Amino acid sequence: MRDHELELIAALVEGRLDDEAEARALVASSPEHAEEYEAQKLAYDTLHGLGTVSMSETERAALHRDVWSALRAQPGVKAANPWWYRWTAVAAALLVVGGSAAVLSQNLGGEDAAQTFAEIAAPLDAAGESTDTTAAAGEAPTAASDDADGGEDGASVTTLDQAEEDESPASDQPAALYSARATDVRQGAETGTDLYLYGENETVDQAIVSCVAAATKDAGLDGFAVIATMDDPDQTPDSSTTTETQSGEQPDLAVASPATADPTEAPLAFVDLETCEVIYLDE
Amino acid sequence: MTTAAQDAQLLARVLEGDHEAFGEIMRNHEDRVFSVCLRIMGNRDHALDATQETFLTAFRKASQFQGNSALGTWIYRIAVNTCYDQLRRQKRRRADPMPDHLDPTDHKAEEAIDSAGLRPEIQSALARIPDDFRSAVILSDIEGLGLPEVAEILGIPVGTVKSRVFRGRRLLAQQLGNQNP
Lengths: 283, 181
Description:
The structure holds 2 protein chains of 2 kinds.
Chain A: H1 3-14, H2 21-28, H3 31-48, H4 57-72, H5 83-107, H6 110-126, H7 134-144, H8 150-163, H9 174-187, E1 196-197, H10 206-218, E2 224-230, E3 253-258, E4 268-272, E5 277-282
Chain B: H1 4-15, H2 19-41, H3 44-60, H4 71-93, H5 107-115, H6 120-127, H7 131-142, H8 147-154, H9 158-179
Helix pairs in contact in B: 1-2, 2-3, 2-4, 3-4, 4-8, 6-9, 7-9, 8-9
């Protein structure tokens, strides 16, 4: 069968011909052509009516969560870290400083211990601003005391600080911020313009519902429902980047509580709507 | 559906570090990508994995997009290649060239096919034709793309697309006919 004939049959099957006479005559001209036409039409008609298949909202939320989780691991990608990242860093730093100070106070005592404490703390304070901090953080405790085990902890602190070097050090108390917003939610105080409390019979956007469902399920929280949305209080507006979320078009966070409990007393889960993860739980 | 100019603007913002723009690109194209992956893979979980991998690849290679085609076409191409890679990995893991989850005699496999949102006999028939022909008929006859766009996505001449669509339909009809003698 020649190419022209195959094209004509294909065009007839697909309904692209204004005048089908020539194609119809070709199909009728031989059993081979008729058989080819029937096969092409069967396949085309079978597939053509299938249509596009969409993701369910749960699948969509899972896709977004997994993509952003994977991207977060890549350098230069700015995405919200879980709240406990920052507190792990703070706790590790306190352990190093406190442990070193305790050992030193035993060995040195008095003014010498206080002075050495400051010497230890100084490199750790500077760790978040330095790009090559691992060695610095590790060196200070080691130099101060052979017994201080600050190397590993110092490295972990500096790695996490380096990942968050874009964030303002002054705003590095997210738990306090979220706790304050939790109080606002419990008191029903829509402070500013970003906290929005849903009414009892008010419909929540399905994408938000699905995201919160996926996040709370992953966190082992059963039966949590959306009660409010807000912008992330931990984000400092950066004039050098586009921050559409901060302009009010799309909230950053959802707040959820157990559906059957009194929100004024029940735990509140703060969910990042970009990554669909619980970033803070206020109990 | 976004225009080419809108997509180009979004991609430019992604390259400047605006990751919200990438989120918007994903939202604009994720349904079409998932649909194609689902038709090729025949399983929702595998299709979701392929969709995820598609967008991760698109993010990593964003700087390589030269604008010679529409952004959607470029993303589609990544999706098809990603599916091919996953199918090859699946086939290497199985001695039987027919993926287990598409074996119509397996009850669990039928559930998987049903979950894909397709009629089992159609997906089974599609799975039995070569990958190259399958992707051509999926893009042309299910997704409704024109032959020039299919050619760009598959990286082959339009004439080759025509040939693959024609032969793919013929093979598919044979498979459908074999299922209903």
